[in-house]
Amino acid sequence: MRRSAAVIVSIVVTLASCGGSDDSATGTEPPVTDAPPADTSPPATEPPTTQPPATEPPATEPPVTEPPATTPPADTTPADTAPANPSGQAVDVSLVEWEVIAATAIEAGPTTFNVANDGDFRHHFGIARGISYEELPQLPGGAIDEETLGDDYLGRTENIDFGGSATFDVDLAPGNYVLFCNIVAGPTSHAARGQVLAITVG
């Protein structure tokens, strides 16, 4: 009986010495890690690219202003009128206080007015289509309203000092015209004082 008990104890001790945890028996294995350790360095960042804001021209351009066309080109002829004097003619004009002295009947066609200031003040020479000064549109003070005349206003010279002269070229169609000085001095114009002349072109 003692021998059997000793054998049993010996077997138990032997089994205990050969024991241990058999991971394969439990079906679990230690985890396998093949991946390298995670990169903990901060991600590379590029500096942000900044571009200046696009600028576009304003939607509207600043308005463009021009002086009213009160001095049309001197050498103008209505399209339906052929020059009656293709070789041209010269007409002498004298400006004095308060008159325009010139021929009152001239030929149609290219004309050069040779203007002399024979007075004591500054004057200029202007011409417009019309029967008389009284029938032309006027501004306060009696100056002829050149802008309102439109195409009937043929133009004028610059102001001419006393003793000076100027020329004015124009292609005249048959009709009635008024020669004038439109300078305003004080409350009245030279035209209102009588420095006008009605002429006929034929």
Per CATH, the class of the domain at 89-201 reads Mainly Beta
> Mind telling me the C-alpha Rg?
55 Å
| CATH superfamily caption of the domain at 89-201 | Cupredoxins -  blue copper proteins
Q: Give the spatial strand order of the biggest sheet.
A: 3-11-8-5-6
Main β-sheet, in a few words?
5 strands, mixed
- The DSSP helix count reads 3
Stretches where pLDDT falls below 50 for ≥5 residues?
1-7, 9-38, 41-85
Mean pLDDT: 74
Helix content: 10-25%
Oligomeric grouping of the chains: single chain
What is the terminal separation in angstroms? 172 Å
Strand fraction equals 25-35%
* Global outline: globular
Number of strands: 11
CATH topology of the domain at 89-201: Immunoglobulin-like
The ordered string of helix (H) and strand (E) elements is HHEEEEEHEEEEEE
Tell me the CATH architecture of the domain at 89-201.
Answer: Sandwich
| Helix-strand category | alpha+beta
